[in-house]
């Protein structure tokens, strides 16, 4: 059972930061400690790691593990060798009193945010992570970046992704060897490859037969959109190739493949089935990615083809939305427009399928179907379900209306108990709202994010024993211990 102050965390951040940064320690938005908000924003970029349940307790951040203060102002943040994943948050720059940041010996990805150059840092240690991109220039210090083999490459998250020679991609994929095929689609084949700097990539090679038609439009759309949008829950475009008749897109490699693989083919492929907490976390990742497209990016976009096969899982099981070939931008202040209906039957909203009317709410509908698939482990279209029940949305709503029938359709690997039953029911109810017949009855993705964030299992701080050593002494001790481990 969550303790009272932990519930207050959630309320404060739903109001103060629209529920997107996670729980906080505040009595009201007005009294919300800005240090707490900033620190929780920082660990939000790490995905709220459970390890923080072991090291943070209480309302005073100066007493939190890894945090050092002087006269109530945070001066050091030291998260060393904590197995952290995710990215470095630009929110570090909001702690203007910071002089030392040490994130060494973790598994962080992404870039060193330019915003950190605003700080008057004496030390920035990001060594032994998996960072990439160019290192910003700091006023008083040179960051320690050793042990990041992709640092300085600058080919990810830059305004214009590089053109990559086709010969480089031939070498990376063993000349597009069939053994390296990891996926096929209507417009091309996807190969696993490895660049000369040992970066693993996924290379989408467009079929020659579609280069002059819709396939070329999709190619242009993906390059255009993915050079403008950057979010941890959207797939990363690392480059592209336009050479002769070749049209290729180079993406960040997602080693665990698509969500559909883990929902529908896990037995055939010898995979571990997804438990409920993992499915819930995936749903929140996807919701955040779509929310970013809809309202938080500089330009608003509608995905138009959200489905489980377009949701990819990284090694850390974090989800990213992919396949932006059908994306359409939408002008500010404009809620809908008409276009030719494209997408995938079973995920298409009724108004889009019948009239071609496009709004952000068609993505909400598709996301509702994805939630239903996460709960049932069944496909959006299943001919084994008779009549209109072949459509997931129709069948699911009918089964959810009956308590006994709903329990029977929950995917077998999901352990249904007192802890999970309520959460599953709430997600099922949310899925029904997302798949409402009328678009105006569906929630905004920001509301979906808030609803799911409140259900995802949160870490619970507990008290840890005090250490009489100063933070700088502890940093030195940890590094000495780590060096001893590495050298053995």
From TrEMBL:
Its main location: membrane. Keywords: ATP-binding, Cell membrane, Disulfide bond, Glycoprotein, Kinase, Leucine-rich repeat, Membrane, Nucleotide-binding, Phosphoprotein, Receptor, Repeat, Serine/threonine-protein kinase, Signal, Transferase, Transmembrane, Transmembrane helix. Belongs to the protein kinase superfamily. Ser/Thr protein kinase family. One of its GO terms (molecular function) is protein serine/threonine kinase activity. Residues 176-455 form the Protein kinase domain. GO terms for biological process: cellular response to oxygen-containing compound; innate immune response. It comes from Arabis nemorensis. Residues 1-19 form the signal peptide. The keyword Lipid metabolism does not apply. It comes from the Eukaryota. This is non-specific serine/threonine protein kinase. Pfam families: LRR_1, LRRNT_2, PK_Tyr_Ser-Thr. It is a single-pass membrane protein; Single-pass type I membrane protein. Gene3D superfamilies: Phosphorylase Kinase, domain 1, Ribonuclease Inhibitor, Transferase(Phosphotransferase) domain 1. InterPro entries: Auxin_Ser/Thr_Kinase, Kinase-like_dom_sf, Leu-rich_rpt, LRR_dom_sf, LRR_N_plant-typ, Prot_kinase_dom, Protein_kinase_ATP_BS, Ser-Thr/Tyr_kinase_cat_dom. It is found in: Cell membrane; Membrane. SUPFAM superfamilies: L domain-like, Protein kinase-like (PK-like). One of its GO terms (cellular component) is plasma membrane. It catalyses: L-threonyl-[protein] + ATP = O-phospho-L-threonyl-[protein] + ADP + H(+); L-seryl-[protein] + ATP = O-phospho-L-seryl-[protein] + ADP + H(+). Its EC number is 2.7.11.1. ATP binds at residue 204.
